[in-house]
Amino acid sequence: MGKVGVNDMEKIFQQVLLYDFYGELLTEHQQNVYEEAVYNDMSLSEIAEEYGISRQGVHDLIKRCDKILLGYEEKLHLVEKFTGAKEKIAQLVELTKDLEESELEHSAREKVANIRQISTDLMNEF
User: Fold this and answer.
1) CA dist., res. 96 & res. 90, Å (int)
2) Nearest to 68, CA basis, from 7, 32, 36, 21
3) Integer Cα distance of 63 and 55 in angstroms
């Protein structure tokens, strides 16, 4: 395949996130084809040959899946909420890092360390 640009990477990242959240709502056939294109980076021709459909059919199916997944996000906003929560947790980690390094009394530093650990654990779950 050719060189992947920043916009391509952003599109792939968005496709992966949307699929992670809503992929189970696609049919099994849609899931299989979409995974081959997005996760396995197979060409339209390779997928067409593997599934016995036309290259145009693969293209149309991927576009339809993108539209379906975006439609779910427009209604449910789960990816938006996820990324917002992740950003806030990252802010907590940074704030607590600064507080841990400040001159607080010992019990306050322990509490800040606990908050930081919980925030870090949450970040790692995402």
Assistant:
1) 10
2) 21
3) 12
